[in-house]
Amino acid sequence: MNRLTRTAALAAALMATCLLTPGAPAHAAPPGAADWLSLTVTRPGTTGGGTRAALLLCDPPQGHPKAPQACAELDAAEGDFSRLADPAAICPLIYAPVTARAHGRWNGHPADFERTYGNACELRAATGAVFALDD
Predict the structure, then answer these.
(1) CA–CA separation, 80 vs 59, rounded Å?
(2) Predicted structure pTM score
(3) Residue ranges of E strands in the chain
(4) H-run or E-run covering 11
């Protein structure tokens, strides 16, 4: 096995481990990063494929499908997850729970958040682009 093949195999194994470990941190923040959040969205009762993860960095916005929007929303809410909610959102009463987790640093302070929502619509309504990891 040549060096490139071994490297690719190791990278694939590492990525699979991250995706198959529910509740595990998505990534470690790079040294010197000011605002960063390790984000996961898990569908309880599923294995591996039910978990999405990203490392949100905001200077510059990266590491997340909607990094610029997520960073702007967190800035406007001053890092307070409870202030991300869209009060006008209307969601169906279908129970398909999703758990959102965040761990990191925001505005120089530790940030830890975990909450289970009734469905993906409720998650989007409560957290905006921050946990929009499927796009």
Answers:
(1) 18
(2) 0.73
(3) 36-42, 51-58, 61-62, 98-106, 109-117
(4) helix 3-20
